[in-house]
Specification:
With about 210 residues, this protein is α+β, with helices and mostly antiparallel strands. The protein has seven helices and six strands.
Amino acid sequence: MTLSILAIQKARNNQWQEAVDINEQILAQDPTNVEALNRLALAYLQLGQLKQAKDIYNTVLKLDRFNPIAKRNLEKLKSLEQCGNGSTIATVKRFSFIEEHGKTKIVPLVRLGEPTVVSLLQACVELDMDIRSQSICFYYQKKYVGKLPDDVAKRLIWLYKRDNRYAAFVKSIDKNKLCVFIKETKRSLKNMNYHSFLSLEREDGDSYEQMTD
C-alpha cells in the first residue's frame, strides 16, 4: 500500500492526526506534491488549525495558481474570518453514499441560503432537517441552508407524518448548486408498501392520489 492510499484511508476514517503525519512523510520526499499538500491542509482544517491550513493552501496556489481545491477552501476560510461569530467549518463524519432503491435519493436544493453559510459546508456533512406542513428546510448550526423542491417534499412530509424518519447529508457543492443525499432511516409499518423515493416509473398503486389514510 502506498503512502498516498494510506493517507486517503486515514482521512476517510476521520483519523486526522494520522493523516497529517503520513502526508508530511510524503512531502518530506516530494515538497511540491500538490495532492499531498491539499490533503495535509484539509487534515489541519479538521483539527481546527486554520492558520496552518491557510498557509498550506497558499503554498498550493504558488505551485498551481488555478488549483480548484485550494481556491475553494481558501474561500471557506475567508468566509469564516468575515463571519467572526464562532462558526466553524463543518466536520465530516465517516459516511458512504451507498444508494438503496426507494430508500435514498440525491436532490439539488432550491432557494439556497447565504453564501457565507453554504461555504462552511463540505461533502458528507449531516444537515438538520426542519419538516413543516408544506416544506422541508435544511440547516447547519441553526443557519438556513436550503429547501427541498416541493414535489419531493410533499411525498416525504406525508410519509413522515406516518412515522417514517430521514437523515440528510451534503453530497456536493458548487458555486450555485448544493445537492443533498437523503436517506430513509426508518420505515414505519404503515408505509411498508410505499417507497420514500420513486423511480421514473412509479410502482403500481403508489400514486399521490392514493396516499391517504
